[in-house]
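Input/output pair, single chain:
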Amino acid sequence: MIKSLPATLILVLFSVAMPQVVLAADSVKLLRNGDAVSVTINDKEFTTYRFAKSLPKPYFFPIKAADGALLTRPIVGEDYQGDHPHHKGIWVSVDEVNEIQFWAEKGKIENRGVELLASAGNPAIMRVTNHWLDRNAADIMIETTTITIHANRMLEYDIQFKMAGSDVNFRDTKEGLFGFRLAESQREDKGQGKVTNADGKKGTKECWGQRSAWVDYEGPIDGKGYGVTLFDHPGNFRPSRYHVRNYGLFSVSPFGEAAYTNGAEPAVNDVFKKESVLRLRYAIYFHEGPAPVAELNGLAERFSKR
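Output:
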């Protein structure tokens, strides 16, 4: 008769016989294909950076949730509403740079280089070089932006503008700088979108033109809730203000003291000397369902220390 094995021995034998299960870490991957860099998270499509020289500016499009939901307004197709065609995915531009309206795509921002600094991991990192051109196709300034993409769908932008041929004047305007256009169903004016900021203000009327560590805009897409948060960085040369509209435009910019306060503050026209460098940092975070204030405050705190 075979005696019963001790429980501890059975556990050891079971552990040896069964292979150890290793959970894969979250991973972001970048893959360049011609004039585009595709971004996947855990091998699922997240977004694509598009930088063909034929474009008026580079931008990320589409932006997708883990379940495949499209988190931004379509650029083409029957769902495209036709207003503000320059609102494309995620972009960097601003009007009134040496009197050229880059935001409205009346000026050309031409990509001259893309480097994949960390093509896989968490985060993945890429660096882009974009030349902002005057009407004679000469450089006004050279933008070098490092984009850090985290597996939680947070993108951090470290933007450096080097003034090129001469001094550069950024005039007071509300049309800028780091922008995103939400899905149509999330618009506040459709009665679905909800906007809040880090200081407890609610709605676009209260949050528009305000300074805050973050602003969050969330609403439904095909009956399910999604949101996007913009973050300002405390190291920027001036606290930025948010251009958050009830029709789904969502951006943040340090240029527009008068424009964003309806003239309550005097206009500030910033002039940066030739060869000087202006550094600006922003972040954007995509989430499913409402994001708790504590979560957004934590992300803002971590971002502020980078």
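Confidence is low (pLDDT under 50) at residues 1-22. The longest strand covers residues 277-288.
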